[in-house]
Design brief:
The chain is an alpha/beta fold. The protein contains eleven helices and 20 strands. It folds into two domains: 1-325, ANL, N-terminal domain (Rossmann fold), CATH 3.40.50; 337-412, ANL, C-terminal domain (GMP Synthetase, Chain A, domain 3, 2-Layer Sandwich), CATH 3.30.300. Helices cover 33% and strands 25% of the residues. It has a nine-stranded mixed sheet with strand order 4-3-5-6-7-8-9-14-13. A four-stranded antiparallel sheet has the order 10-11-12-15. Strands 18-19-20 form a three-stranded mixed sheet. Strand 8 (240-245) and strand 9 (253-255) form a beta hairpin. The protein is globular and about 70 Å long.
Length: 417
């Protein structure tokens, strides 16, 4: 389902298409979303002041906090009767983030997901097995729907343990694995325990999503599975997976800039930086109907590569994602914020604000959030069962609300357990 008429479009034609779609998006956002109309008015800007792609820089960025503050439907550009899908994800405040899809948005997203799979070399002849953690439930659904839209056979994500997943992979002759880098690394350790060799599998490709893929991890996985890897980039707030995709050249991820306009900004000044210079990726939707976003701050630190790609596509590419410019961190591909962790621990502590430190550690490939929690005498118990029960409740609360695996080490102020 490759689209050479778009993916290899002349740059001048592509920029004209982007400008046309940008002006349509801004018009809809201004007329239908009070948040954006207020921004224009506060700056003394009119719609016809945005005449070029460069003029977009005159508008401020949209942050995740803006989405939370307009909970639940304040940023929708269409009436609820036109919304066919409502998604939510944990925000960094007390309010979750809510995203709405109109029917044309769902169709667009299926096409973009098919573009991701096609870039990875997947065809309708493949058997695609999806192994993603429950905390990525939205991505599970989207990636399953995209593979089905392409016409491939799909083994959906389940609650099977990893050994059973590998048995299915071997016996069902899975040819494409869709997972996160963390889970892929863990599958290799389980294969070693099962004495299952890569040659016994029918895998020809793996598509890794939801987290960056550092070069050293790529080499480890390609060697372990004896395949080449593809990857993709997406943000739940900007419709999910499928914003950018890898190709056979393997030199960065092609950004679907016919539907999303990327910018790289200096994290300190907010000013645009030249091509190739790293900074924060900021995204403006060009075709999204129900939930337009103007200069959404992704928080990801990366760069844009504008040189021609050997695959023939002219879409710009994302360079390596080297970290975050904000406090958000990832546990196995699931993004969270220290404030979210603090809020959930406060709830388990009955309103007491926690004093804690955290770190993401890797065990057998899987990422786990380790939390050192200090408690004062008023809430600290010497009873081992009470402490164990508290840790279980805290782990369960974090799992249910954020979808992450966590471990707690309790410390009494002035002592340790």
């Amino acid at each position: 389902m490759r689209q050479p008429e778009v993916e290899a479009m002349d740059r001048e034609e592509l920029e004209l298409l982007q400008l046309e779609r940008l002006q349509s998006t801004l018009t809809r956002a201004y007329r239908q979303v009070k948040f954006y109309r207020r921004r224009f008015e506060q700056l003394g800007l009119r719609l016809d002041d945005i005449r070029t792609l460069g003029d977009l820089a005159r508008l401020p960025g949209t942050a995740r906090e803006d989405l939370s503050e307009n909970y639940p439907y304040g940023l929708f550009a269409v009436p609820l009767r036109d919304i066919v899908r409502i998604l939510s994800s944990p925000g960094t405040t007390d309010q979750p983030l809510v995203v709405g899809y109109a029917s044309q948005d769902v169709k667009l997203w299926l096409e973009l997901l098919a573009r991701v799979y096609t870039g990875a070399g997947v065809t309708r002849e493949d058997i695609v097995q999806i192994i993603l953690p429950p905390g990525l439930a939205n991505w599970r659904r989207d990636l399953q729907a995209g593979a089905e839209y392409l016409g491939a056979s799909v083994i959906p994500a389940t609650t099977l343990n990893f050994a059973k997943e590998l048995m299915v992979m071997r016996d069902y002759k899975t040819s494409v694995l869709v997972t996160t880098p963390s889970v892929a690394r863990h599958l290799l350790t389980v294969m070693a325990r099962m004495d299952l060799a890569a040659g016994e599998l029918s895998l020809k490709q793996a598509l890794l999503v939801a987290a960056p893929l550092p070069p050293e991890v790529r080499r480890e996985l390609e060697s372990g599975f004896q395949i080449t890897l593809a990857s993709a980039y997406g943000i739940t707030e900007v419709m999910g997976p499928g914003l950018a995709f890898s190709c056979e050249a393997g030199e960065g991820l092609h950004f679907s800039e016919d539907h999303f306009y990327p910018e790289i900004l200096d994290p300190e000044t907010g000013a645009p930086v030249p091509a190739g210079v790293p900074g924060e990726l900021v995204i403006t939707t060009l075709s999204t109907y129900a939930f337009p976003l103007v200069r959404f701050k992704s928080g990801d630190h990366t760069s844009l590569i504008k040189e021609p790609c050997r695959c023939g596509r002219t879409l710009v590419r994302l360079g390596e994602i080297t970290g975050r410019v904000d406090a958000i961190f990832s546990v196995g591909g699931i993004k969270t914020h220290p404030d979210q962790v603090a809020r959930l621990l406060t709830e388990v502590l009955g309103g007491h604000r926690p004093n804690f430190q955290w770190r993401v550690v890797t065990e057998e490939g899987l990422e786990v959030l380790d939390i050192d929690l200090s408690l004062d005498e008023a809430i600290f118990s010497d009873e081992v069962k009470a402490l164990e029960g508290f840790c279980r409740r805290a782990r369960r609360h974090l799992q249910e609300n954020l979808g992450i695996n966590a471990r707690l080490l309790l410390k009494e102020i002035g002592g340790e357990v």
